[in-house]
């Protein structure tokens, strides 16, 4: 009878198997990087194509992110104009202002009396002399309400407008929502365009990587047939090509990250000059660390997907033939 292995022997055998598998993966991974080095022109061209393909949607994502930041700043600065009834006194108007300041959806309230509104209108309209012949001031007192950033969105702003126009002193409320609606529609359109381009470019990357791996497999067709003849499994043969796809993704992702950072730095100087004309200090935000990692991870997934599709189809088709 055979003696059963001791528990510590079984444990050591399992550890040896795990380390042995890890070692084989490292060897094949490093070996696949060496294969890329031995074909520099093809490898560099594939890496550049992958990096440039991902640079375009990533750069557009940067502009969409900054556009959303700008639009949110504009949205938080939108004002609701409340025109008070002509019978409302200054004391009642001040009481209204105090009540409005208690609203959690409102960040600022400014009161413009009827007299102040008439003075401003005289200066801006150019009819100052004609307005002196009026028997009474035709302009109502106005309250300018600035919503919070959360309440400045289209739906929230409409709800706030409906809510505050129910105050007894208010005759009419006005909020120019048309430009906000258009701005959100344009931002949504740009996001859809970026998503569509990203999908198309990702598909093209998968096809390019797949074709590159296919050519590499065909170049090693005889060696693969010999390996199968001596008992190598398809998984063992496929592994170096899969690692090649991973390396393409890693290097292409790094190229894309570097390109996006350079473009953001290049455009930021022009944007600073433009914003200075409007007395603004807006600074272009590039990809943060998490977004850079996600970009490289996406490139790795695309490279691995393209190589996986190629090796599953072509390596299985190679079979050793007897002479």
TrEMBL record:
Membrane topology classification: Multi-pass membrane protein
Source species, domain of life: Bacteria
GO CC entries: cell division site; plasma membrane
Keyword Membrane part of the UniProt annotation: yes
Organism: Thalassotalea piscium
Function: Part of the ABC transporter FtsEX involved in cellular division.
Pfam families given in the database record: FtsX (PF02687), FtsX_ECD (PF18075)
Residues in ABC3 transporter permease C-terminal domain copies: 197-313
Protein name listed in UniProt: Cell division protein FtsX
UniProt subunit comment: Forms a membrane-associated complex with FtsE.
Gene Ontology annotations of biological process type: cell division
Subcellular location: Cell inner membrane
